[in-house]
Design goal:
By secondary structure, the chain is mainly α. Helices cover 72% and strands 1% of the residues. It is built from 14 helices and 2 strands; from the N terminus they run H-H-H-H-E-E-H-H-H-H-H-H-H-H-H-H. 42% of the residues are buried.
């Protein structure tokens, strides 16, 4: 196997080609709508969800190049969530991936509509895949579940609800599982469904990786710098967000991150032999600096 960075680039470059072609053919009117959608879709980022989708398909011996529609749907949903997350009514962030947030570039109303359009577009893309076979229908349903009222939207709502309130481990676990972990677990579970593999191990790996991602995000909020993060550090504390730092303290959050990393690695025992990249991805998330 190639080294981890080269393999990650292989998956992310394959996705960037798909996304670039997709955005080049975007013809929505008025032009400001398409411009806003493209602006955030093409703003860069780690592309961890499509990379996870492709890497898990690869681990299961499935061709990932043919799964353009579901990969794009994943990124459309993630991008819409970032646009809405940055709005003044949500996290009120001026920066995203080192650039002005969508609402700073296009205005709050246009940003809201660009996010709405990306969410609808995601389901256009996913529905177009459902006619291929039952596995693609199930994969699309897994994505819908992870994105909606049982998943990310529920977690975002809870995140806002607990802002400035007394809350502890149970409430934090609910927020993180719904807001972050389910949409990171979704591409792993979707790949398992397409490959006819056990989705339980896939879900366990994805949920643990998602929790790990959020813990490291919370840690970076207190120890990162704006240049590396591409967003404003220190906001969680200033806005009294419910975070791992608030509940466990910095040292406790570091220990919990190690536990989640170990949990994700144990889950890979159910994937078979081709898990080197997915293992290294856990280590990369644990050690990330942005």
């Amino acid at each position: 196997m190639k080294d981890f960075s080269a393999q990650y680039r292989l998956y992310s470059d394959a996705f960037e080609r798909m996304l670039g072609e997709f955005c080049a053919n975007m013809r929505f009117r008025p032009a400001v709508l398409a411009d806003g959608m493209r602006y955030s879709l093409l703003a860069g980022g780690k592309r961890i969800r499509p990379v996870l989708f492709f890497a898990t398909l690869d681990a299961f011996g499935m061709p990932y190049e043919t799964e353009r529609g579901l990969a794009l749907a994943l990124e459309c949903i993630h991008t819409y969530s970032l646009i809405h997350d940055d709005l003044p009514e949500m996290d009120n962030d001026d920066l995203r991936r080192g650039k002005p947030s969508n609402h700073k570039k296009f205005g709050t109303g246009n940003a809201l509509l660009a996010g709405d359009a990306l969410l609808s577009l995601a389901f256009d893309l996913a529905l177009a895949e459902c006619g291929r076979d039952e596995a693609h229908l199930q994969a699309a349903r897994a994505l819908s579940f992870a994105a909606g009222a049982e998943g990310m939207v529920s977690g975002q709502s809870a995140d806002l609800f607990y802002e400035g309130k007394e809350a502890g481990e149970e409430e934090l676990a609910f927020v993180v599982e719904r807001k972050t972990a389910r949409l990171i677990a979704a591409p792993v579970e979707m790949a398992a469904l397409l490959a006819g593999r056990d989705r339980t191990c896939a879900r366990t790996y994805g949920n643990a990786l998602g929790a790990l991602f959020q813990i490291t995000d919370d840690l970076l909020d207190v120890k990162g710098d704006e240049g590396r993060l591409g967003k404003t550090p220190g906001k969680d504390s200033a806005e009294q967000k419910l975070t791992y730092i608030k509940v466990y303290g910095r040292e406790g959050a570091e220990r919990l991150a190690d536990e989640k990393a170990a949990e994700a690695e144990r889950a890979l025992a159910g994937f078979g032999e081709k898990t080197q990249f997915l293992r290294k991805l856990v280590a990369a998330v644990r050690g990330r600096e942005r």
